[in-house]
């Protein structure tokens, strides 16, 4: 299965910077700059917050309230605001209390900024709109950023879902998972590809920094079914908000292992075996400075294949014969899933998978 990139338009660096005090934007009067707001009467002496922060709509910032107590969903353009209920600072919004200055309820308004032209329509800075049923966009000082309204989850719905695919549902905008035809048995062996998408997590796709919508794709499946391979992902979680390709080493199972012999009597699979002795990883003649006892994905006797389900990424140091030390990131398996979603001969999905892996190796 191919790992899909999130289809979002990124906030790029803008030619017009926000004011230096924009991170303090809330319910303050930015008109004359000389008027002081009256102290807020909404804040009590102690904080009382929910155990879990609220789930904000796509593109809405999660911010600390004006009392400095709880995280809340920021108010958006045209919504009512107070000194406690702040306007979205990432969109250059402030709370306009109008006159007289002793008003305690205002309206979220955008500071002056460059407008955006999208699809032939002009939008003000700070204005939010839907480009389609799948995306919600925001104009921010001449730059347009969009977040998906549909789930972009490319992972399988469950280990037992055979031949899953995303299909268009009549009357609905977003595609949904569908478990297709019953599985067909495949041959057993460690040569099966790590076909199931790994259940890994990156930064929140709705996370926003100044002029940047941070997003990260899932890690791809390991390029090798045994031995040392690579896994990749794409992210813009960096200082310049630029898309970059990240790579980590991975090993689903050792090539020389005879995992079938480890299956207990009466069992059909060995799902997540761990080495009995510590080992060192080797790449291009360089070996890790430390020894590890990693978990691997096993095999089954009934035609199922076992692939990574939960993983983590850790830094490692490799020491080379010439004394040089290089640092690499490595995938470590937490658990594996054994399932029937295995590629077979003349399978169109298999050819697509290997094409993707070859591209990742380039």
Automatic annotation (TrEMBL):
Main location: secreted
Gene Ontology biological process terms from the UniProt entry: cell adhesion; DNA biosynthetic process; positive regulation of cell differentiation; signal transduction
Residues covered by the CTCK domain: 269-343
Alphabetical list of Gene3D superfamilies matching this protein: Thrombospondin type-1 (TSP1) repeat
Keywords: Cell adhesion, Disulfide bond, DNA synthesis, Extracellular matrix, Heparin-binding, Secreted, Signal
Annotated localization: Secreted, Extracellular space, Extracellular matrix
A Pfam match: IGFBP
InterPro entries noted in UniProt: CCN, Cys_knot_C, Glyco_hormone_CN, Growth_fac_rcpt_cys_sf, IGFBP-like, IGFBP_CNN, Insulin_GF-bd_Cys-rich_CS, TSP1_CCN
Cellular component terms (Gene Ontology): extracellular matrix; extracellular space
GO molecular function, one term: integrin binding
Residues of the IGFBP N-terminal domain: 39-111
Source organism superkingdom: Eukaryota
UniProt domain VWFC: residue ranges: 114-180
Subunit structure of this chain's protein: Monomer. Interacts with TSKU.
Similarity-based family: Belongs to the CCN family.
Function noted in UniProt: Major connective tissue mitoattractant secreted by vascular endothelial cells. Promotes proliferation and differentiation of chondrocytes. Is involved in the stimulation of osteoblast differentiation and has a critical role in osteogenesis. Mediates heparin- and divalent cation-dependent cell adhesion in many cell types including fibroblasts, myofibroblasts, endothelial and epithelial cells. Enhances fibroblast growth factor-induced DNA synthesis.
Protein name: CCN family member 2
Native species: Collichthys lucidus (Big head croaker)
Lineage, highest ranks first: Eukaryota, Metazoa, Chordata, Craniata, Vertebrata
